[in-house]
Design goal:
Number of helices: 4
Distance between the termini: 32 Å
Number of strands: 14
CATH class of the largest domain: Mainly Beta
Helix content: 10-25%
Radius of gyration: 20 Å
Order of helices and strands: EHEHEHEEHEEEEEEEEE
């Protein structure tokens, strides 16, 4: 039987689900489970085979990964989510699918059931014991920096695909973001210009950003500088805030000109 995992390497939801999939691939391989990752990119830089290979290695993915750059496999499965898991039985029938994170215990139970159906005499190892976590309660939702998909933006109207100088509004409500300085708001990402800053009033334990192009991102939380992130090499997700408990805070980023920002995710 086969587990198909639709994923893309800079997606935090995919990254959080990978430990479960990797453990199933190892635990149940001898019992007949084959895991195939289908890498269906969200961003242009995720279409680069070298980037995918580099990040798959970094993330410890050792099972086969198919490149689905034109989303043909994605569309054939009528998929719409990262991650998405499909269980296919020994006869080639899709028996189960799960969109997004969670339900790991349920998915593992079905893996075991389908392996038993394929071979009633198979000796299954003990369950891996994967548990769900409440990942969405009281947490800011994903924020895409795209003039097509942006949500939660407040401030001056966005100018599509041309440089414009913005100013922070007097207040930024919870779960909202605003721009200051010069930015170019594009279809897939925002590009920082002169004196570019971004502020975000978030609720979460950690905050992640997918940036690209060589540059520096200075992180300020509640008025206090906390870290500097160097953006270089393979574009991928970077951790900006990493705390032990969830809280509400105001994030401000000071970003070098030319640096691209794609999306914020929270955990």
């Amino acid at each position: 039987m086969v587990l198909i995992d639709f994923w893309t390497y800079s997606c935090i939801n995919c990254q959080r689900s990978l430990p479960n999939i990797k453990q199933w691939a190892t635990t149940y391989k001898e019992a007949g489970l084959e895991v195939i990752g289908v890498h269906s990119p969200e961003f242009a830089f995720e279409r680069d085979a070298g980037n995918v290979a580099d990040q798959a290695k970094t993330l410890g993915v050792t099972y086969p990964v198919a490149l689905d750059n034109d989303l043909a496999t994605w569309n054939n499965y009528r998929n719409q989510y990262w991650p998405a898991k499909y269980l296919i039985d020994a006869d080639g029938t899709v028996r189960y699918f799960k969109f997004g994170e969670g339900q790991y215990d349920q998915t593992e139970n079905l893996i075991r059931t389908l392996l038993k159906q394929a071979d009633p005499n198979v000796q299954l190892p003990p369950k891996t014991g994967q548990k769900d976590a409440d990942l969405t309660k009281n947490r800011t939702p994903e924020r895409n920096l795209s003039n097509l998909r942006i949500e939660g933006y407040v401030g001056d109207p966005l100018a599509n695909d041309k440089a414009k100088t913005y100013r922070f509004p007097a207040t930024v409500p919870t779960d909202r973001l605003a721009l200051d300085g010069t930015w170019t708001a594009g279809y897939e990402y925002f590009t920082a210009g002169t004196d570019a800053r971004l502020t975000l009033n978030y609720r979460a334990k950690n905050v992640n950003l997918v940036p690209a192009r060589k540059g520096t991102v200075k992180v300020v939380v509640d008025g206090k500088p906390t870290r500097t992130v160097q953006v270089d090499g393979t574009p991928t997700l970077h951790r900006l805030v990493d705390e032990t408990t969830s809280r509400q805070a105001r994030l401000e980023l000071q970003i070098d000109p030319g640096t691209q920002a794609y999306a914020f995710t929270f955990g």
